[in-house]
Amino acid sequence: MKVKVFRPSLDDVERLSYGKAARKRGTGSKYVCHRLNQEERKLYELAKNAGYLSVRGTAYRKERKGSPLCNTFRQRCDALEELCIILEKRAQGDKLLIDFSTLRVSDDTPHVRLILENVIERLYPKLLENTENLSQSCTINRDKLRTESIWNINERLITIECDRDIAKSLAGDILKESCRFHKVIPDDACDSKSVEIMRDLTSEVPGRNVSDEVDNDSIDWDDL
């Protein structure tokens, strides 16, 4: 039987994005920024259609001490029970963040396996030549997954560094592959190569703090 977990409604996600109070208690917090400005809202609307969010740097806003845009998109993905995919465009190479925490599953190994085998290995094998291009962070806290708002749950990330010319297609292919997540995958379906790759990716480190990263504190209007 599927375990019922705490998720926001799409209506509350939209309300928070306009600075309004959520109807469901605990969905929002005065300590977590979600209200979008005009520029962020345009990118947010584009992300709704694309299925992934594209920003420059981390989209961190100093005056809000966080990224309302990333927070709002992640909460929307949580409401939809979908992967949260964010493409960070950077001068030295793009970074694709794939957050599995929004799936709220106690074991995301089968989902990671699908992405690694059917997308990375099959379509973008060169990304595996340098294992530093891929990293996964944060162990799963099962209690929080069931009861807490997504902003209080550490990101469960696979981070992929790649060139600008493949970043968008990679994000799209990962999004397509995630449509297979509803299928049941037996535990013994994982081959030794996949196990090795997942072991290399996994490390017990806390979720990222975008305020600690170098960023130009700007919104991305390139390639819109």
Question: Mind sketching the topology for me?
Answer:
Blueprint: H1 10-17, H2 38-50, E1 53-56, H3 68-80, E2 84-89, E3 94-99, H4 109-123, E4 134-137, H5 142-147, E5 157-162, H6 164-177, H7 192-201, E6 202-203
Parallel strand pairs: 1-2, 4-6
Antiparallel strand pairs: 2-3, 3-5, 4-5
Helix pairs in contact: 1-3, 2-3, 4-6, 4-7
Could you describe the 3D structure shown?
It is a single chain. With 224 residues, this protein is of the alpha/beta class. The chain has one domain. 35% of the residues lie in helices and 12% in strands. It is built from seven helices and six strands, in the order H-H-E-H-E-E-H-E-H-E-H-H-E. It has helices at residues 10-17, 38-50, 68-80, 109-123, 142-147, 164-177, 192-201; strands at 53-56, 84-89, 94-99, 134-137, 157-162, 202-203. It has a six-stranded mixed beta sheet with strand order 1-2-3-5-4-6. Strand 1 (53-56), helix 3 and strand 2 form a beta-alpha-beta unit. Helix 1 (10-17) runs antiparallel to helix 3 (68-80), helix 2 runs parallel beside helix 3 and helix 4 (109-123) crosses helix 7. It is globular. Mean pLDDT is 79; it is low at 184-207 and 209-224.
